[in-house]
């Protein structure tokens, strides 16, 4: 699993800061078991391109729960007067997994892209009056909306035009393009982890399963513990093989299929599905009308089939399917 992002890697060489300490479960500095973090407030241009390792708690107000998951709860609130989302990562039975999930959330914190939910601040330090025994850390993020694609696909009765599906898929593809260019693999791409803003822009969220691939490492990366959602998990992950950006491409193929069909990808026993995906190349059906009666659907069917191919080398890169999807609009 990924290590926390060193603050010094995010700062210009000539940028001076005072540093304070914030406990980290996964790193040690030369002076002890603490992660060194900036204690001062950023100003000017730097404030727009860096996430902060300090949360100004007095500015964080009006927290209202809007969702929860295996590792924490998400709130909507205000931070310096702006609407934000706040994720509190809790400690579950597997304490190491909880801590890894918190630090994995920060794998893309240094990236700014219109289709990726931006991290504003994160810390493991919580004031005594706000702290709870099961709290691992807190992350303040931009508020990207109340609706995710899961709700849009299965919860709304309104028609979802093919053109709009393509537009949403291009947003997701551009986010993957940016992540992969910076060595970040999401590992849990699915409709529930794609938020839809009020402006109709899709943004990838929830990086708790993500992985940072080191460009300097000569070793092949394997996942000892597989996170993510089994319906969207690439066969090579199920077989314990190499982790690469192509696992996100597989998940993208399943997600695009869901957008176009508005149906669940599989039904039946979980273990049977996992076995059939690996052993018999089980995939969702592409014989639906949307793939056969329309030119756009026919092209999407071909792209989807390549995205979820059992051979990762056959799958297109994010760069490739951004181009392929863009010409369909």
From TrEMBL:
<feature type="domain" description="Protein kinase">
    <location>
        <begin position="60"/>
        <end position="329"/>
    </location>
</feature>
<dbReference type="GO" id="GO:0007165">
    <property type="term" value="P:signal transduction"/>
</dbReference>
<keyword id="KW-0723">Serine/threonine-protein kinase</keyword>
<keyword id="KW-0547">Nucleotide-binding</keyword>
<dbReference type="GO" id="GO:0005524">
    <property type="term" value="F:ATP binding"/>
</dbReference>
<dbReference type="Pfam" id="PF00069">
    <property type="entry name" value="Pkinase"/>
</dbReference>
<dbReference type="InterPro" id="IPR017441">
    <property type="entry name" value="Protein_kinase_ATP_BS"/>
</dbReference>
<feature type="binding site">
    <location>
        <position position="88"/>
    </location>
    <ligand>
        <name>ATP</name>
    </ligand>
</feature>
<dbReference type="GO" id="GO:0043410">
    <property type="term" value="P:positive regulation of MAPK cascade"/>
</dbReference>
<dbReference type="GO" id="GO:0004674">
    <property type="term" value="F:protein serine/threonine kinase activity"/>
</dbReference>
<keyword id="KW-0418">Kinase</keyword>
<dbReference type="GO" id="GO:1902103">
    <property type="term" value="P:negative regulation of metaphase/anaphase transition of meiotic cell cycle"/>
</dbReference>
<keyword id="KW-0067">ATP-binding</keyword>
<protein>
    <recommendedName>
        <fullName>non-specific serine/threonine protein kinase</fullName>
        <ecNumber>2.7.11.1</ecNumber>
    </recommendedName>
</protein>
<keyword id="KW-0808">Transferase</keyword>
<dbReference type="GO" id="GO:0005737">
    <property type="term" value="C:cytoplasm"/>
</dbReference>
<dbReference type="InterPro" id="IPR051681">
    <property type="entry name" value="Ser/Thr_Kinases-Pseudokinases"/>
</dbReference>
<dbReference type="InterPro" id="IPR000719">
    <property type="entry name" value="Prot_kinase_dom"/>
</dbReference>
<dbReference type="GO" id="GO:0004672">
    <property type="term" value="F:protein kinase activity"/>
</dbReference>
<dbReference type="InterPro" id="IPR011009">
    <property type="entry name" value="Kinase-like_dom_sf"/>
</dbReference>
<dbReference type="InterPro" id="IPR008271">
    <property type="entry name" value="Ser/Thr_kinase_AS"/>
</dbReference>
<comment type="similarity">
    <text>Belongs to the protein kinase superfamily.</text>
</comment>
